[in-house]
Design goal:
Layout: E1 5-8, H1 14-25, E2 30-31, H2 35-43, E3 58-61, E4 66-69, H3 71-81, H4 89-109, H5 111-114, H6 120-144, H7 162-177, H8 179-188, H9 190-200, H10 203-216, H11 223-233
Helix pairs in contact: 1-3, 1-7, 1-10, 3-4, 4-6, 4-7, 7-8, 7-9, 8-9
Amino acid sequence: MAKSFTLYYWPIPFRGQFIRWVLAYAGAEWDEPRADGVVEMMSQGVGLQPVPHMAPPFLEDHGDNVALSQMTAILAYLGDKFGLIPDDPGRAALTLKVIGDANDVLEDITRNGGARMWTKDEWGQFAVTRLERWMLIFEHLGRQHSMTPQDGHLLGTEEPSLADLVAGCLWFTMADKLPRIGALLEIKAPGVAALSHRMAKLPAIVALREDTDRRYGPVYCGGQIEASLRKVLD
């Protein structure tokens, strides 16, 4: 039977993992072409692509005939489709802010997609400035909405929302694959660390994580940038 979605992304967690978390939580079924299929899609002329794009992630929703690129747009679309965005405009906008923040963290941690590699000195400075601040940004957003290490959600919703899935995926995946960052998160942002573990323990997410580990092993973002990350963290 044909799956409802097709996700084009590399065989690593990173940006694609956010989309996988949301699809899994919503109980959706999706296909993922192999890496050569991803290359074929991104190499097509822009006039031939279902939606013009530079690189994955790229998602096709076959049921509603929608094609989207860009992690932020895909997550906003899926959040709306699956009812994971709060109804009130303020928290809906904060949800988009959380997605944008998560994407910025990924840009920071990979030095703008590998434009430069990490050195020990540069990582040391980054860890105590921008990385810690990012952790505190998520932590204090949760505190403003009564989240604690024991319970609650990032925007104060009764049930997990898109913001929780995005924050959980961001910090749990990073901490799981790069444990020294996880240790820092536990100290600087205990509420976010606890939230990410609660989200990661949801049954659908557990199954997805097990599948991710089986298919991709310990890899996080891949390539030379991950090698430089691991070098400065070891």
